Amino acid sequence: MIWKTLLTKRIGQQRHPVFPKLGPGQLGMTWIGHASFLIQFQKLNVLIDPNFANWLFLLKRIRRAGLQIDDLPPIDLVLITHAHFDHFHKSTLRRLPSTKVGIMPWGLGKLARKLGFERIIELQWWESFSHGDWKVTLTPCRHWGARMLHDDHRGYGGYVLEYQGRTVYHAGDSAYFDGFKEIGRRLHPEIALLPIGAYSPVEFRKVHMGPDDAIRVFKDLHSKWLVPMHYGTFKLSFEAMDEPPKWLQELARAHGLTRHLRILEEGVPQVF
């Protein structure tokens, strides 16, 4: 099974990906690990929450990033969902090529200065930024955005990216809330990148989702594809590391959604 392959992958293994040649309207997606993704179109490369760190303070990465920064194509756009260290990683951002636009929630711009961004855009919930043929909208979620204790002025959220008739939703970190229904009604995301880890103990459910919540969110969104994330990379909670993808597969079968589930392997590009 895919999840067994993912969880037995050698810790030190990193791939040198062969990125697909994409035609108009095609979308390539590479899971880097945790909440980090490379989204590729024919003329647009987007990074979301890039984090290539092997350590976050005392927290060791259990599986290395699926590829190396040097393997990345030129990056046009970086989306950051919130300021938590596992999503906003300054060392990673400094090492990225400098010609890029950074889009982030309100209050993060000051943190992003001197990190190599050509331009920084801060958004409020439901605000959008467009350039050429692409558009990005910051969506609400149920989480919090503090970088440090009592640092409560910084925003947080998810994103819907629209380009060439395709729509990708990255939920960031979030507990389940009714706002997912509104995201589905307003923005009609085709592909939903949903977190499924860090849900145990039950108190964590106030700010994180489990696989059962992800299934519910997927139905609220009326999306075509469910791609799980935010599991198996850092030990952030107390569920077994292999539990989230296994449970998600079981739930997908029970709900008749197996054909809509795409579990990615780190560093292996997939075409949607």
Number of domains: 1
The CATH class designation is: Alpha Beta
Find the CATH superfamily: Ribonuclease Z/Hydroxyacylglutathione hydrolase-like
> Which architecture per CATH?
4-Layer Sandwich
Can you count the helices?
Answer: 6
What is the CA-CA span between the terminal residues?
A: 21 Å
Percent strand equals 15-25%
Helix content: 10-25%
Written as H for each helix and E for each strand, in order along the chain, the element string is: HEEEEEEHEHEEEEEHEHEHE
Strand order across the biggest sheet?
Answer: 8-7-6-3-2-1-15
Annotated CATH topology: Metallo-beta-lactamase, Chain A
How would a textbook summarize the main sheet?
A: 7 strands, mixed
Average pLDDT rating? 92
Shape: globular
What is the radius of gyration?
17 Å
- Strand tally is 15
Low-confidence runs:
1-10
Structural class comes to alpha/beta
Molecular structure report:
By secondary structure, the chain is an alpha/beta fold. It has a single domain, classed as Metallo-beta-lactamase, Chain A. It is 18% helix and 25% strand. It contains six helices and 15 strands. The strands form three sheets. A seven-stranded mixed β-sheet has the order 8-7-6-3-2-1-15, with no helix packed on it. It has a six-stranded mixed β-sheet with strand order 9-10-11-12-13-14, with helices on one face. A hairpin with a 2-residue loop joins β4 and β5. α5 (211-221) packs across α6 (243-254). The longest helix has 12 residues, at 243-254. Residues 1-10 have low confidence and may be disordered.
